[in-house]
Amino acid sequence: MKIEIWSDVMCPFCYIGKRHLEQALTELPFKDSIEINWKSYQLNPDYKNEDGESLYDYLSRSKGISLEQAKQMTTQVSEMANNVGLDIDFENNIPANSFNAHRLIHFAASKGKEDDAEETLFKAHFTENKDIDNLEVLLDIALELGLDRSEVKAALESNAFEEEVRFDIYESQQLGVRGVPFFVMDRKYALSGAQPVEAFKQAITQGYNEWKVAQENSSLKSLNTNSDNTCDENGCEV
Fold it and tell me: Boundaries of each DSBA-like thioredoxin domain copy (predicted)?
């Protein structure tokens, strides 16, 4: 069963939600039957950090709150992150436009490294305080992922994977996504936010059980085992 996750690398709850999902999956007996597919989403697609703006300044300006309120808000999120073993450093965090980071994730997905790219970008942004809108930073991350640096550079300097990112965002609009993380099980059930592990287990189990029944019902059932009068790559049998 496929779980699609609309997420933004700039979103701390997406990082926390990823951990909750991963923990839930480790506790489910059918975890090997689950396929994860990451989808792009941008919380602030027009943002550009040109003056070295800090996260607190960004939150204060964008949400119309004081710097003290911004710090208090991030302290609560840090505590949530710590509970799942994540070290988020808001003090030195660099707000950035995530469009090119999403392009890198799509590139990595084409090489079978989608989840690794998502994880590495989250860590780079929230723990290592890297500017994920900086080309050199993204190229270093690509190298860390085992991707070809020159190939990634050529892709990011072109318009490669731009349409894929935009299509993910378009899909989110069609599904009515208004915030991330947003988890969709088999395009039937949705879960919004960094929900508790138990909520993930319940939603995934419900989705999986229905998916499994649908798979069984869609299977062709042979009426007999007679293989005569058939043709295959080796010829025909009478």
Answer: 3-204
Task: Decide which of 187 and 235 is more confident.
Answer: 187
pLDDT of residue 236: 55
Find the angle CA(99)-CA(100)-CA(104) to the nearest 5 degrees: 120
Domain range annotation of the chain: 2-217
**Residues in the chain, total:** 238
Q: Cα separation of 51 and 53, whole Å? A: 5
Indicate the DSSP class of residue 229: S
According to DSSP, the β-strands at 35-40 and 2-7 are parallel
What is the tens place of the pLDDT at every residue in 136-164? 999 999 999 999 999 999 999 999 999 99
What SS3 state is found at 160?
A: coil
| Plot region of 161 (φ>0 → left; ψ -120 to 50 → alpha; else → beta) | left
Average pLDDT over residues 43-64: 94
Fold designation for 2-217:
Glutaredoxin (3.40.30)
- Residue entry with tokens 């919380």: 43
98 and 131 Cβ atoms separated by less than 8 Å: no
The pair of structure tokens assigned to 133 is: 């809108």
Cα separation, 1 vs 35, in Å, equals: 6
Q: Which ranges of 27-66 would DSSP assign to H, the alpha helix?
A: 55-63
pTM tops 0.85: yes
* Other beta carbons less than 10 A from residue 235's beta carbon: 6
Residue 222, pLDDT > 50, answer no
